[in-house]
Design a protein that fits this description.
single chain; alpha/beta
Length: 208
């Protein structure tokens, strides 16, 4: 019994510590967003930006557009910010953040105009499909933080993931697939350069 109480106490402490870390992380993210996007009403978002090559090039061509790239790996974000600094861009910011937490902490009054998800982890094993970012729950949440007419751009070299993503968009209820829309900006990513082939989709937020 004493052992059970000890284990329960350790689990409770561990949960509290985790909750504290999450709260601290969200608070820091919110402060960073308010700082770098003060006075802005719209952004272009890349989820899973890696080392920032693609978004930096996009921002260089669209200097009047505030751009944000997020990734879970800290050293990628550090390299991305150094790259943007070297070329003197002040309209692109790279932040370490999980996508759902980013949407939660996005300041009120700031909407997403364009979203790019380029060659994300396909999580090929069926037991890991729940980790795929292109799911109906996330797509609904993303739509809620997007401006009217916002567009989502998704690209992958994993055919099964592409089919699942297209189905998720169709069933999410808040997006319309655009079969003939042109891809707005082409720069080859690292993963794209290694792919034999790839598939792309574009979806537009439905008018309410």
């Amino acid at each position: 019994m004493a052992t059970d109480r000890k284990l329960l106490g350790e689990a409770t402490t561990s949960l509290k510590e985790h909750q504290q870390r999450v709260a601290q992380r969200k608070s820091l993210l919110n402060a960073k967003l308010k700082s770098c996007l003060s006075g802005k009403s719209r952004i272009v978002l890349e989820i899973g930006c890696g080392h920032g090559h693609w978004l930096t090039d996009f921002a260089a061509v669209n200097k009047d557009v505030p751009c944000v790239g997020i990734d879970l790996i800290g050293n990628r974000i550090e390299r991305a910010n150094r790259k943007a600094s070297r070329v003197g861009l002040d309209n692109v910011h790279f932040l370490k953040a999980e996508a759902n937490e980013f949407l939660d902490q996005l300041p009120v009054g700031l909407g997403i105009e364009l979203v790019f998800i380029l060659f994300p982890d396909p999580w090929p094993k069926k037991r890991h499909w729940k980790n795929r970012i292109m799911n109906t729950g996330f797509l609904d949440k993303l739509s809620d933080r997007c401006l009217e007419g916002a567009r989502l751009h998704f690209r992958t070299d994993h055919r099964d993931y592409f089919d699942c993503a297209a189905n998720a968009v169709a069933f999410a209820g808040k997006w319309n697939l655009l079969n003939d829309a042109p891809w707005p900006f082409e720069r080859e990513t690292v993963f794209q350069s290694k792919a034999d082939s790839y598939q792309s989709l574009i979806a537009e937020k439905r008018k309410i």
